[in-house]
């Protein structure tokens, strides 16, 4: 969800949380320094520090929901209301009638979040490649204006390879390529992280090193 600089979870629709002072509550319970941050932002820091992440990068984390961390010149971009990179609730079309957890319909999460992909795949007439291709296409549609506006070097996807690698990744790459200018973004890479499940933990290590030990 959306987390401010004091570790307050301003909004986490998938958890039903709003204005939860999580950092203060945890620190009070355990009596230790606590850092609370958006998971996608932490993952982006982990990719930059321990993976092949570039200084101008977007990391999209696909799981129960969909979020992303933005790095410009190696620094996390949080935005005026701490919600930069919250692409999961960008509406990608009006062809979904059921409401999203946020109250809108047609949000990217309704196509790309892992529980939603699994629900589509469980339908009796579901075609696995078609479901994953459509999820990737919706992702590419959302990414194209962001890549164009920020002139990013790469977009990195994090999440279960069983869902993301293959048709989903291929469709996202193709859609992104078709919707951006080759002269400006032709060498931009869209790939999966190679750090796997440890990505967020590694990013959290960096937060501790920076916050408690002053390591930059």
User: What is the tally of helical segments?
Assistant: 9
Biggest sheet strand order reads 6-5-4-7-8
Radius of gyration: 17 Å
How many beta strands in the DSSP annotation? 8
Let me know the average pLDDT: 92
What share of the residues does DSSP label as strand, in percent?
Answer: 15-25%
Unreliable residue stretches: none
The structure class reads: alpha/beta
Helix content: 40-55%
Give the N-to-C terminal Cα separation. 25 Å
SSE order: EEEHHEEEHHHEHHHEH
Biggest sheet character: 5 strands, mixed
Overall description:
With 216 residues, the chain is an alpha/beta fold. The protein is 42% helix and 16% strand. The protein is built from nine helices and eight strands. The strands form two sheets. A five-stranded mixed beta sheet has the order 6-5-4-7-8, with helices on both faces. α2 packs across α9 and α5 packs parallel to α7. The longest helix has 23 residues. The radius of gyration is 17 Å and the shape is globular. The mean pLDDT is 92.
What is the topology?
Layout: E1 2-3, E2 9-12, E3 17-20, H1 22-30, H2 39-50, E4 57-62, E5 66-72, E6 75-76, H3 109-112, H4 114-121, H5 128-150, E7 154-158, H6 161-164, H7 167-178, H8 182-185, E8 189-192, H9 199-213
Parallel strand pairs: 4-7, 7-8
Antiparallel strand pairs: 1-2, 2-3, 4-5, 5-6
Helix pairs in contact: 2-9, 5-7
């Amino acid at each position: 969800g959306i987390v401010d600089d004091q570790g307050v979870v301003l909004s986490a629709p998938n958890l039903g949380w709003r204005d939860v002072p999580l950092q203060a509550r945890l620190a009070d319970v355990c009596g230790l320094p606590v850092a609370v941050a958006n998971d996608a932002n932490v993952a982006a820091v982990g990719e930059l520090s321990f993976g092949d992440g570039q200084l101008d990068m977007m990391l999209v984390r696909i799981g129960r929901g969909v979020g992303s961390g933005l790095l410009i010149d190696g620094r996390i971009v949080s935005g005026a209301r701490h919600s930069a990179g919250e692409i999961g609730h960008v509406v990608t079309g009006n062809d979904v009638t059921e409401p999203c957890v946020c109250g809108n319909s047609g949000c990217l999460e309704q196509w790309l979040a892992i529980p939603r992909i699994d629900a589509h795949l469980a339908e009796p007439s579901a075609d696995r490649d078609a479901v994953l291709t459509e999820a990737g296409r919706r992702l590419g549609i959302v990414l194209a204006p962001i890549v164009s506006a920020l002139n990013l070097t790469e977009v990195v996807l994090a999440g279960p390879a069983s869902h993301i690698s293959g048709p989903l990744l291929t469709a996202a790459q193709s859609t992104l390529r078709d919707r951006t200018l080759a002269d400006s973004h032709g060498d931009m890479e869209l790939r999966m992280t190679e750090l796997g499940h440890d990505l967020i933990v590694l990013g959290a290590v960096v937060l501790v090193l920076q916050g408690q030990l002053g390591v930059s």
